Amino acid sequence: MDKCENTEEKAPPSENGRFEKQKIQSKAQRNQPGPGFEPSCVSFKSDRSKDVIINFNDISSGVEQIHQRLRSGSEPSFASFRNDQANGHHTHSKSSESSGVERVDHRRSPLLPEENETRNQNQTCFDFTPEVSPEKDGVLYSFRFSGSGLFECSLTGLKFHITQEGEVNYKTLIWDTTLLESRELQARGPLFNIESSPGTISQLHLPHCEHQPLSESLSVLHITGDGSSLIKPEKITETHVVVNVPHLSDFGIVSTFFQRLIERKIKGQALLFLDNNNNFLSIHVILLPSNVPLQEVKEFHKDSTFIKVPAYCVFYKDQTYSCHSHPGWVDIQPLRSEVPENYGPNYHALYCLRLPLKRQRRTKKVTITIKDQQDQVIWQHKLPLPGLEKQQQKSILSNTERLQRIRPAFIDRVSGPTLDNLLPKLCQCTVITPNEEEKIGEVTSRLDKAKTLLDIVIKKGERASSNLIKILMEEDRALSETLELM
Prior knowledge:
Elements: H1 3-10, H2 16-31, H3 61-72, E1 79-81, H4 96-99, E2 101-103, H5 113-119, E3 125-128, E4 131-135, E5 138-145, E6 149-153, E7 159-162, E8 166-173, H6 177-182, E9 185-196, E10 201-207, E11 219-224, E12 227-231, E13 235-236, E14 240-244, E15 250-256, H7 257-260, E16 265-277, E17 280-289, H8 294-300, E18 305-307, E19 312-316, E20 320-326, E21 331-333, E22 336-338, E23 351-356, H9 357-360, E24 365-371, E25 377-384, H10 388-396, H11 399-413, H12 416-428, H13 434-441, H14 446-459, H15 462-475, H16 477-482
Parallel strand pairs: 3-6
Antiparallel strand pairs: 1-2, 4-5, 5-8, 6-7, 7-10, 8-9, 9-15, 10-14, 11-12, 11-15, 13-14, 16-17, 16-18, 16-19, 17-23, 20-22, 20-24, 21-23, 24-25
Helix pairs in contact: 1-2, 11-14, 12-13, 12-15
């Protein structure tokens, strides 16, 4: 008899029921696994695979061997390849002979029970717009958080669970296809390099493009200077893959080789860019997964004009789609194209529509349509033509040049209350200093105050001019439209 049972025998008859209940609970607790138990290797086994029929007749012998392993009940295992250069923009994997192979666990960063409980509750998410700095190999995003909370980047869709004040810098990198192929993985989103002070970020929400995400279909590949490993998501929502952060480096959503063989719907975006060359108006159509940051595509096509239109669509990866126009005299090249799941660094157009300038001036609009192989429309937009040339000319100017162009009208039309509201907001985002705010505020004449403010901002360059335009659009939309800033 164990101690619990001896105690039960000595208890008074009226307490026998209570001690019997404690006995049952004690045995149940002994049978439960320890709190730190984790599987020793990454497992991608799923009951859903029993209902998926995959034809391996036309696939290489390597896939046939995997098929045989599936029939025999064995599960795939994955290796982590050590890497001394993973911190660079191009991640390169070394062979297992030179670096050795280690087991990869489903890792979770340690969290206190109360932290887990808090994160499972609905939490208010605050949007923020980071500072953008174009670099030679992409775009750097930066933002300084003043406190804790859940924040979503308006340019990338990334969400950060911030635990303390601190600055976060992040950018996209180029996926190393050799590393992915060696791990039998495929990219399902951009590869983000994220840097901040230790302890600033405790959880990441990486945007995915799955139309109907499965709970076991996605993982996050974590790449550091010591190698790479898979992190099991805390949860997968309709829009994001949520992971705890062991430490910061490179993070990207991936799926297994088996998921790659299954036909998938992808949430996408159809983007339009405009060029005006040699008496032709050229409209470039780009079709990308929805989790590709628009800012990256704009930077790649910085010599063209971005045309803002409703972009959402749904398509199947690696299927052929056709582009159509009305009126029919528009020249489209090519008429059909296969749509890849493209995560950069190149974002080339799938289709190019060429409109002779003489004919387009007599045409009010052109309808652009993308269809699948069953002739079903996946995206369509009616594009008004008369304003395209004007829109292109406006976008060629820098923000500083735009302010210089509207300077007389701004000084004449801006109201006193609008100027008073602009000053503290410009100071808050460090466009002007507190001393400059005080100096401008002491000017009694509205005209002189507007002139002083605008001249100070213009002298400070592109970033300051961009912030003034943005804040002015928030404060006085009617004036912004009149000045053609919108």
